[in-house]
């Protein structure tokens, strides 16, 4: 009987630990989805609020695109300067939309694959790396592939 009680208590402790880890991971996934949807896609691509979106990008952020075997790399300042200039061409009637393909979270690091589209036309595949800092998740890099 004593062994059964000990085994039951151990089982409950393991179950509680797994549940806590699962809840923490779910919270991380929800936070990451929010940053990518609200700050990256809407804040940057749909030009809702570039200034607010900037706080969810690390200072060391890098954007890399590949087109026809050529790569282009932008630092955080060049990336946001590009979107500030492009803002005047914003298409308010056809916003960019985001579909999450995968989200992989491992402790303080996450890798997210998204497809960006407009009017059901796929435009880009992005691989977005995020790191969890003291003040929350921040985007540290985006690998961009035009479809």
Taking pLDDT < 50 over at least 5 consecutive residues as the criterion, the unreliable ranges are 4-21
Q: What is the beta-strand fraction?
A: 35-45%
Number of H- or I-type helical stretches = 3
Report strand order across the widest sheet: 2-1-6-5-4-3
Radius of gyration: 20 Å
Secondary-structure element string: HHEEHEEEE
Indicate the structural class.
Answer: alpha+beta
| E-strand count | 6
What does the model show?
It is a single chain. The protein is built from 3 helices and 6 strands; from the N terminus they run H-H-E-E-H-E-E-E-E. A hairpin with a 2-residue loop joins strand 3 and strand 4.
Would you kindly provide a brief summary of this structure?
41% of the residues lie in helices and 41% in strands. By secondary structure, it is α+β, with helices and mostly antiparallel strands. Strands 2-1-6-5-4-3 form a six-stranded mixed sheet.
Keywords:
single chain, about 150 residues, alpha+beta, 3 helices, about 40% helix, globular
């Amino acid at each position: 009987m004593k062994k059964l009680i000990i085994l039951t208590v151990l089982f409950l402790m393991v179950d509680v630990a797994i549940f806590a880890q699962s809840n923490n991971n779910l919270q991380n996934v929800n936070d990451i989805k929010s940053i990518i949807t609200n700050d990256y896609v809407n804040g940057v691509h749909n030009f809702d609020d570039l200034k607010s979106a900037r706080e969810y990008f690390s200072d060391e952020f890098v954007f890399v695109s590949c087109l026809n075997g050529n790569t282009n790399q932008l630092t955080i300042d060049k990336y946001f300067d590009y979107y500030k200039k492009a803002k005047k061409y914003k298409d308010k009637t056809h916003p960019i939309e985001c579909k999450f393909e995968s989200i992989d979270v491992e402790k303080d690091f996450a890798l997210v694959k998204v497809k960006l589209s407009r009017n059901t036309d796929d435009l880009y595949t992005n691989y977005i790396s995020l790191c969890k800092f003291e003040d929350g998740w921040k985007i540290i890099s985006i690998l961009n592939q035009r479809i």
